[in-house]
Specification:
By secondary structure, this protein is an alpha/beta fold. The protein binds alpha-D-glucose-1-phosphate-6-vanadate and cobalt (II) ion.
Length: 546
């Protein structure tokens, strides 16, 4: 075997977004493209000195191009002095499992192959993300260094060894590097069993609780089957669409009421199960559904926080909460009641890492169906589902009862997100620029019954390393706590995606039954009149409302 140096063309303008590099599969298949990004990762990390037995973890969500990409990464890792690679069987590892395995085995880092909730298949998307030794996404300082390398490097190093057999558990080698094919579920399942009361949840299933977990033909299928149907004794068939497919069965593995409409329909039927849940392409997102009620992710975070001590892993209470800026302020109210801090961070899980490492927060959440805790450094779909099952077991109430009791105590934060997908990128930028220019004049202005208390473009200073992230989204906060937020997506692969987030607080339980779009109607109008969204995009209505 030998190691080659192969010429490659630098990338032009391929800056990784919110969660690593996401592009069309066809782009990744161009000669040298994948290799360019992987080389940039290794150049940023520096070659492992022979004295350091450096391990990395590699795995993905099983989408089209996963296996091919893994073989290339293994050959390149061997060429950069990596001592050992842990790779999930069949190339499979959910994003939370990668985080778990990095931490458990004290790996140097990990490479996650996924475009998460984006569609897959030959015409779909592919993605690569680098995670650091704490198990979380690389911070901006590292991703920026990688980006710089992608633009300058002119060659990459690769071994001509391999390919490695990925389907059989066990050990093989490329050059001097050991490749260990591991069970993708085992370490993760053991961690879940330590955090939650598996006895109580098993009793719930034994007592007849009916659940439907929709894995959307994505990576969480094997995890959900092993844990729910295996360890917890849920009846076979509880997990549906549980086979990971390279194209996710042609679906869009993004668990929200629009993409998981089939699950929602089941939960509304006469014979609806007691509990429903779904997860996304790489298993880090969750949707929680009760009979006849879909739980808003922002509410889910607040409810988990308010009930945290009911789960064994959190019996001692929680240190603090962090939520992304567009996430509703429901969690802030819980933090107030508990006398702990609630941090507001930019969108993207990487901003939570420092807060968790410094033990400032225990729970984190995003409005985009992402919830998690300090047990790993990624959001964790199945974790949230198990938390809810633990809650149902201890409280002996339905999902709806738990949600309504929460609103009665803390008030309801009506919430919705309107996405305008694949709009013209130049128009989207023009809209944001015009909006930024307007901000200084907005404070103090009244719109109907709303008066603007604060209008800014969110700037975040990390309380731990003091790094500053600017231009993280337009916040327009009203005096009564209602909010309008606008930002551009960092994960789309076609044109620009504009996200409009809306939130209205309502304390009075007599007003907790309004249809959310109606409850938010006035704020939606205000958002349009301030932003000129329809004018800039030429769109009458959003692509997706969640
Ligand atoms: C979206 C979500 C964000 C999430 C990110 C990655 O980003 O809004 O909250 O962290 O996806 O999630 P954006 O920039 O498109 O709004 V995942 O499950 O796709 O890794
Ligand atoms: Co995801």
């Amino acid at each position: 075997m030998s190691i080659h140096t192969i010429a490659t063309t630098p990338f032009a303008g391929q800056r990784p977004g919110t969660s690593g590099l996401r592009k069309k599969v066809s782009q990744f298949q161009q000669p040298g493209y994948l290799e360019n990004f992987i080389e940039a990762i290794f150049l940023t990390l520096g070659d492992a000195p022979a004295s350091e037995r450096r391990s990395i973890v590699v795995g993905g969500d099983g989408r089209y191009f996963n296996r091919e990409a893994i073989q290339t990464i293994l050959r390149m890792a061997a060429a950069h002095g990596v001592a050992r690679v842990l790779v999930g069987q069949g190339g499979i590892l959910s994003t939370p499992a990668v985080s778990c395995v990095i931490r458990k085995h004290a790996a140097f880092g990990g490479i996650v192959l996924s475009a998460s909730h984006n569609p897959g298949g030959p015409d779909g998307d592919f993605g690569i993300k680098y995670n650091i030794g704490n198990g979380g996404p690389a911070p901006e300082s590292i991703t920026e260094a990688m980006f710089a390398h992608t633009q300058a490097l002119t060659s990459y190093r690769i071994s001509d060894g391999g390919p490695v057999e990925l389907d059989r558990l066990g050990t093989s080698r490329i050059e001097n590097m050991v490749v260990e094919v591991i069970d993708p579920v085992a370490d993760y399942a053991a961690l879940m069993a330590r955090l939650f009361d598996f006895k109580a949840i098993s009793a719930l299933f034994a007592g007849g609780l009916r659940m439907r977990f929709d894995a959307m033909h994505a990576v969480s299928g094997p995890y959900a089957r092993a844990i729910l149907e295996g360890l917890l004794g849920a009846p076979a068939g509880t997990v549906v669409n549980g086979e990971p497919l390279e194209d996710f069965g042609g679906g869009h593995p993004d668990p929200n009421p629009v993409n998981a409409a089939e699950l929602i329909a089941h939960m509304e039927g006469v014979d609806a199960p007691d509990f429903g849940a779904a997860s996304d392409g790489d298993g880090d997102r969750n949707m929680i559904v009760g009979r006849g009620i879909a739980v808003t992710p922002s509410d889910s975070l607040a409810i988990i926080a308010a009930n945290a001590s009911l789960a064994p892993g959190y019996a001692g209470g929680i240190k603090g909460i962090a939520r992304s800026m567009p996430t509703s302020t429901a969690a802030d109210r819980v933090a107030d009641a508990l006398g702990i801090s609630c941090f507001e961070t930019p969108t993207g899980w990487k901003y939570f890492g420092n807060l968790m490492d410094a033990n400032l927060v225990t729970l984190c959440g995003e409005e985009s169906y992402g919830t998690g805790s300090h047990h790993i450094r990624e959001k964790d779909g199945l974790w949230a589902v198990l938390f809810w099952l633990n809650l149902l077991a201890v409280r002996g109430e339905s999902v709806e009862q738990i949600v309504r009791a929460h609103w009665a105590r803390f008030g309801r934060n009506y919430y919705s997100r309107h996405d305008y997908e694949a709009v013209d990128a130049v128009a989207a930028d023009a809209m944001m620029t015009a909006l930024r220019d307007k901000l200084p004049d907005l404070a103090g202005q009244s719109f109907g019954r709303y008066r603007v208390a604060l209008a800014d473009d969110f700037v975040y200073t990390d309380p731990v390393d003091h790094s500053v992230a600017t231009r993280q989204g337009i916040r327009i906060a009203m005096v009564d706590g209602s909010r309008i937020v606008l930002r551009l997506s960092g994960t789309g692969t076609e044109g620009a995606t504009i996200r409009l987030y809306l939130e209205r607080y309502e304390a009075d339980p007599a007003h907790h039954d309004i249809e959310p779009q109606l409850a938010l109607a006035e704020l939606i109008d205000i958002a349009h009149s301030i932003s000129g969204l329809r004018h800039y995009t030429g769109r009458e209505r959003p692509t997706v409302i969640t």
